[in-house]
Amino acid sequence: MSIVAEQRELRDDALNGLQLSTRLENLWRTPSGFFGALASVDHKVVGRRYIVTAFVFLLLGGVLAVLMRVQLAGPEKTFLSADKYDQIFTMHGSTMMFLFAVPVMEAFAVYLVPLMVGTRNIAFPRLNAFSYWMFLFGGCFLWISFMLNVGPDVGWFAYVPLSSLQYTPTKRPDVWAQMITFTEVAALAVSVEIVVTVFKLRAPGMTLDRIPLFVWAMLVTSFLVMFAMPSIMVASTSLILDRLVNTRFYDSSSGGHPLLWQHLFWFFGHPEVYIIFIPGTGMVSMILATFARRPVIGYPVVILSLIATGFLSFGLWVHHMFVTGLPQLGAGLFTASSMLIAVPSGLQIFCWLATLWDGRPVYRTPLLFVLGFIVIFVIGGLSGVMVASVPIDTQVHDTYFVVAHFHYVLIGGAVFPLIGAVYYWFPKIAGRMLSERLGRWHFWLAFVGFNVAFFPMHILGLIGMPRRVYTYTADMDWAHLNLLSSAGAAIFAISFALLLVNAIHSLRSGALAGDNPWDASTLEWATTSPPPPQNFDRIPIVKHRDPLWFDNESLPVVAGLSVERREVLMTSLAEAEPQVREASPEPSIWPLLTAIATTVFFIGSIFTPWAVLWGTPPMAVTLIGWFWPSGSKEDEE
Amino acid sequence: MRQTIVRNVAELPTYGYGPRSGPWWGAMGFMALEGMGFAIAIGAYLYLYAVNPNWPIGAAPPDLWPGTAETIIYLLSIIPNEMINRVAHRQDLARVRIGLIVMSLIGIALLVLRGFEFAHLNTRWDNSAYGSIVWLILGLHTTHLATDVGDTVVLAVLMFTRHAKPRRFSDVTDNVFYWNFVVLAWLPLYVLLDWVPRL
Ligand code: HEM
Ligand SMILES: [Cu+2]
């Protein structure tokens, strides 16, 4: 008893160097063994899993994309049936949007934000673990259903009445609707964690105008998630209730309304695009500053643009419904605001170009992907301004023009920055460099392949090819461009294989990265690569926006945290003044058990409403196990 | 990289109340997104109200007494709730225990009343879109009520064990805070469910 009390007095200022590192590592590490791994609450472990899982879903979604392009490569092909094609484009869209694009951005944030703000773990690490399990189970649920031939087939937007029981009496839309709930629970949890991490766990001195731009981007994104995703959860829950217990939300014969679905869906669906795009811009800002070798010009402008984009994105959902017959004035208003949103994005692009112009750019792979992003995104933005106008949208709605547009925006706006980010942060996460030569090959193949695949779709759309058709006849004259597009898709797909090869090769025998291989300026580079379980032996103090460029002699740090209990330093909201040494949770298996109980509940309720009754007690039990404070060091004396 | 210690934080407390504690901010975050969920559900209600010539559809408005009784209890519950807040800040374990038991009982009473409220909606979820949205909204709020009651009961039990450590009082104040949200969220819903159909 007295020994414990004595040890509890032990603080990190009593130790130094190796002693301190070893002690903290033992304190913060993930327990060994299989069960230890399942109990991990380390944001880096969870983040890495999250990233890898999201990329597996990218691969799966990509395979489906290639299957579609094979089918469409020539007229009247019978590679896929109409029925299979429906499932495949639905699975492609749903996988890409719900299981890849949003999760991968959150995954990067889970890994990077705590390091970038200089803390030891994310806020609510157990919730974080839970979020990952929910994402994993939801994704597996969708894909296993697809393999068992009960996967959804009504589009990634599942419009009613097509998705209503009357038109689709199978379980397919139920699978879709429930998958939404899984992934949204995961996304919402991460957003709350990110917001609280950024608000309260920043290193002392990291005032609001010293926060790295990627962290700002994730903060704005998290707010978008928090305000957009409840809408789709209400929508999909109502859908599943209509299908399972005969509610009438979307049933026009009983006072329901199909357009209610579209409003709820797009109130989420439009911000969704920015939920994917804004983190991409955050990555771009980080990469650009490092390789242009100077801070991003117009830091406050970039932040204001992010915030403005966030706000505007909510005002725009109606532009997805121009052809549903809206009042004239409303349509005009939404056209105007849809075009307005190009302004903040344009401002950011000017800031980036100015930074490049004024810097001494080093053209390494991450920067190449950023340049590719700028080109592709500008084209996507232009076609976006076009479809924001009602007369044009009326023409090209539901044609391949739209498919071209949104792939330019999604792939240009998110996937290119993301791949740049992979090349940029891989050394930090894995401790080893990726091959630059393979990286350049990857970039050029991706850039060319992408444009060859998607540019022709603009033309196909203008000459009348509708989207979501599984084939077309030879007399339409669409064959050549489709063949070209499919060839481009193949090149694009192959380019990603290079990334896989590169990653595997590098993990085995890549050059060691060292702490800061790119000579970057933000805090994640102030620790070793890969970072130790405690992230930092001592919490840094931030005095500049680019701490490692200004404090390059010696990093100012804080002492006085416990080395007996996991502690994080909480700071004040605006000034980041230290306030509290708060306990950070120990590893626990309960988040996994809770996720399993929740999964049983969600899947069970597709088959019987009674699952709501027998499914609740296990959830309650696991939640109590989660929150019950046994095992917390403070409670053990 | 070399490091220079320029500050010592050993004297800082190991827990804080309100905005100085992490869980408080977590609760804020969840209240924001749950509040958004309520707002969306209200929006859906008003949308259906606007597109339908008759409202409520094929039913009488809900009977007033259960919702009104609940509203009164909710408002009165703020008094013991705020008292818990005060004694928790003073770390007065005996009174916190009493307060948590009182709040648990109030919560259970409200859950029972909620059962009556469902029975007196005068419509079923599958009667019409009106029935559906009314049940959805009431269900949504009941979920919040039930989780908060569960939370309060568990916390009450916790405070009778050896885990009743000083920083648990901070958890108690967060629970107080969340209850206020449940109450606050109910007020517009009461107007919407019980009075709008009478317009
Ligand atoms: C290898 C790269 C990709 C190729 C070749 C590709 C190709 C396609 C094709 C052929 C369609 C179907 C169009 C139709 O029949 O209407 C489609 C739809 C779609 N794609 Fe992709 N895509 C790729 C990557 C992505 C990515 C990275 C995302 C998102 C981040 C994405 C999101 C979507 C969405 C949301 C749809 C709409 C699905 C629907 O209509 O239900 N795609 N894509
Ligand atoms: Cu949009």
Automatic annotation (TrEMBL), chain A:
Keyword Metal-binding part of the UniProt annotation: yes
GO biological process: electron transport coupled proton transport; oxidative phosphorylation; respiratory electron transport chain
Pfam families named among the record's database cross-references: COX1
Keywords noted in UniProt: Cell membrane, Copper, Electron transport, Heme, Iron, Membrane, Metal-binding, Oxidoreductase, Respiratory chain, Translocase, Transmembrane, Transmembrane helix, Transport
Reaction catalysed by this enzyme: 4 Fe(II)-[cytochrome c] + O2 + 8 H(+)(in) = 4 Fe(III)-[cytochrome c] + 2 H2O + 4 H(+)(out)
Domain Cytochrome oxidase subunit I profile, first and last residues per copy: 22-543
Enzyme superclass (EC): translocase
PROSITE patterns per record: COX1, COX1_CUB
Function (record text): Cytochrome c oxidase is the component of the respiratory chain that catalyzes the reduction of oxygen to water. Subunits 1-3 form the functional core of the enzyme complex. CO I is the catalytic subunit of the enzyme. Electrons originating in cytochrome c are transferred via the copper A center of subunit 2 and heme A of subunit 1 to the bimetallic center formed by heme A3 and copper B.
Assigned protein family: Belongs to the heme-copper respiratory oxidase family.
NCBIfam families registered for this protein in UniProt: CtaD_CoxA
Protein name (database record): Cytochrome c oxidase subunit 1
Record lineage: Bacteria, Pseudomonadati, Pseudomonadota, Alphaproteobacteria, Hyphomicrobiales
Gene: ctaD
Automatic annotation (TrEMBL), chain B:
Membrane-spanning parts: 24-48, 93-113, 133-160, 172-193
Occurrences of domain Heme-copper oxidase subunit III family profile (ranges): 1-198
Keyword Transmembrane helix: yes
Compartments, as annotated in UniProt: Cell membrane
GO cellular component term of the entry, any: plasma membrane
Membrane topology value: Multi-pass membrane protein
Principal localisation: membrane
SUPFAM superfamilies attached to this UniProt entry: Cytochrome c oxidase subunit III-like
Xref: Pfam families: COX3
Gene Ontology biological process terms from the UniProt entry: aerobic electron transport chain
Transcription is among the record's keywords: no
GO molecular function, one term: cytochrome-c oxidase activity
Signal peptide boundaries: none
Keywords for the protein's UniProt record, in alphabetical order: Cell membrane, Membrane, Transmembrane, Transmembrane helix
InterPro entries attached to this UniProt entry: Cyt_c/ubiquinol_Oxase_su3, Cyt_c_oxidase-like_su3, Cyt_c_oxidase_su3-like_sf, Cyt_c_oxidase_su3_a-hlx
Membership in a protein family: Belongs to the cytochrome c oxidase subunit 3 family.
Protein name as it appears in the record: Cytochrome C oxidase subunit III
